[in-house]
């Protein structure tokens, strides 16, 4: 018997190869407000976080949030870029058909952005009714709220959930939720952001770089004392 009743996928960087596109637009939007943030800093401090969390971080670090004009411009620029360049990560959606465990998506992005990402990459039919956004909870990642909300909505015990994440914030959120977590490091942003060492330090239950390996890795999880 599998020790996992629900798989919770992050979206950006896990299902879709969107992080380099999002970081490009985010850094430009911040610069337009007169705040200089390097790409390396953006990957380190903002990856996997909601815009509300990023805005609050900018208040702490630079005394100014992301303004309404910057947010609107960023959304317009990002969606245009998505329509030109966004792709699903290699092997998807075919890999999803190999999973015999229910799954959903829980992302720091807005519902609108999640829907667009999944639609453009052909993944929406797999997640149409199981999409959860940080906008649905009080605290985004690295707080556990979003993953706990998704588990409750899907009727799953958090201790029998597996999260697939690519960001330190997301891995931390899963661990705080008492869930198992796999770190996916096959996205094109991992090397650019120097994230592998940080992800390894967090100690997820597994780390993998090829999404084709996921079905076998999930099936290998069997009921044990940790899962009960």
SSE topology:
Blueprint lengths: L5 E4 L9 H14 L6 H8 L4 H12 L5 H18 L17 E5 L3 H10 L3 H4 L3 E3 L11 H9 L7 E5 L2 H9 L3 E5 L4 H4 L3 H7 L3 E3 L5 H6 L9
Parallel strand pairs: 1-2, 1-4, 2-3, 4-5, 5-6
Helix pairs in contact: 1-4
Detailed description of the structure:
With about 230 residues, the chain is an alpha/beta fold. It has 2 domains: about 5-15 and about 85-225, 3-Layer(aba) Sandwich (Rossmann fold); about 20-85, DNA polymerase, domain 1 (Orthogonal Bundle), CATH 1.10.150. It is about 45% helix and about 10% strand. It contains 11 helices and 6 strands. The protein has helices at about 20-30, 40-45, 50-60, 70-85, 110-120, 125, 145-155, 170-175, 190, 195-200, 215-220, and strands at about 5-10, 105, 130-135, 160-165, 180-185, 205-210. A 6-stranded parallel sheet has the order 3-2-1-4-5-6, with helices on both faces. It is globular, with a radius of gyration of 17 Å. The N and C termini lie close together (about 10 Å). Residues about 225-228 have low confidence and may be disordered.
CATH uppermost class of the largest domain: Alpha Beta
Which CATH architecture of the largest domain would you pick? 3-Layer(aba) Sandwich
What form results from the Cα inertia axes? globular
Over the alpha carbons, how many angstroms does the gyration radius reach?
17 Å
What is the terminal separation in angstroms? 12 Å
Q: Which runs of at least 5 residues are low in confidence (pLDDT < 50)?
A: 223-228
Q: CATH superfamily membership of the largest domain, which one?
A: HAD superfamily/HAD-like
- The CATH topology name of the largest domain reads Rossmann fold
Largest sheet: 6 strands, parallel
Proportion in β-strands: 5-15%
Number of DSSP strands? 6
Helix content: 40-55%
SS-derived structural category: alpha/beta
